[in-house]
Amino acid sequence: MNRRAALRGGAIVAILVVTFAAGVFVDQAFPEYVPYFGHRSVGKVDLTELQHAVRIVQADYVDTSKVDPAKLSHSTVQGLINGLGDPFSAYFDPTQYQKLQQSYKGLYSGIGIYLSFTTSYPVITGTLPGSPAAAAGLQAGDQIVKVGDKDMKGVTSDQATTLIQGPDGTKVTMEISRAGQTFSVTITRAEIHVPTVRSAEIGNQVLYVRIYQFGTQTETSTALASTLSTGLPGKTGVVLDLRGDPGGFIATATDVISEFVASGETYELRDRSGTVERNQVNGHPKAPTIPLVVLVDANSASASEIVAGSLQVHHRAKLVGTVTYGKGSVQQDFPLEDGSDIHLTVKRWYLPNGVTIDHKGLTPDVTVTLANPTDAFDVTSPSLGYAKDTQLNAALALLAG
């Protein structure tokens, strides 16, 4: 039985609502099967009132013909998870969980936008070339005010994904705010598959590598290995861009670190009993010595913080950008018998030096802000250049020095 844990990127994240590429995702693990009934009873959860309430509804609710038992069951579990007060633990009904499993594999049906999240409205930071969003005229800097009738203020990446994703060929209507003006747009969703890794040669023979999220090892680790194998010869340095990367599978994080570090720890996991699990690099790095700079920002979370922090602790790379999100917890998926899922915080992770970044984030070696999210280098359109990308230019200056 596979019970891999994974990291979730929380409420920031640049999410590609294809839905992913900048990463909605998805920091989830999806065990082959984890039975919900196989755990020992811990704590004192009093179910008396819940059982009493169920009996009352069953016995006395007037519109019994309108009662949906499955909906009541899902709402009950949803309330249980909400009661934890943990922003990273969540309940997904069967339909939502099925969508998430598809996103784990890099398969999406959506509109093709990158989003960043704050306590306000999600902001589009880019669109995929040829995507439905690009065809509809959506632009970087647009705010999504509503999806259908749902106000989007303060929504999480998962909530946005659930609302914007949908079957191929279906439509989604959104209210967009741009430069003080609000307008409505209806877009037809399409099937989209977005690579998690993209690269380009920039500067003085520098290999620029953008990881949008840490997908499965097949999806991301293999792509990075191929990128380094073909892109490193003749290069003078590497810029690893983890800006807006919400995280993903921790096994993938280990693979990424292992491409740049020859030996040592990648990170530590600690469960509620305090047991420490020390994870090591897996050997055979393709780029153990080439000069390396990592770009991070406030939307770099979870597995991206593991990679950036571990490379910093190992003195393998300098970090450039702004303080990262600060998510040091680990979530695991527990599928239930009806196809729904409990995404539960089960562990916390620590850097190889035993430090946690939870609620603190990583502090860059060189702090550089970006005036506008749209100033960031778009590796999907390299011809536009990176003159306005102050963080990338600072990274290139470090490599040149």
What is the gist of this entry?
The chain has helices spanning 48-60, 69-82, 94-104, 132-135, 157-164, 217-231, 250-258, 303-313, 390-400, and strands at residues 15-16, 90-92, 107-110, 113-116, 123-127, 143-147, 150-151, 171-178, 181-188, 190-193, 197-202, 206-211, 237-241, 265-270, 276-280, 292-296, 318-321, 329-335, 341-350, 366-367.
Write up this protein:
The protein has 401 residues and is an alpha+beta fold. It has a domain of 189 residues: 2-enoyl-CoA Hydratase, Chain A, domain 1 (Alpha-Beta Complex). It contains 9 helices and 20 strands. The strands form 5 sheets. Strands 11-12-13-16-17-20 form a 6-stranded mixed β-sheet, with helices on both faces. Strands 2, 14, 15, 18 and 19 form a 5-stranded antiparallel β-sheet that branches. α6 runs parallel beside α7 and α7 runs parallel beside α8. The longest helix has 15 residues. It starts with 14 loop residues before the first strand and ends with a helix.
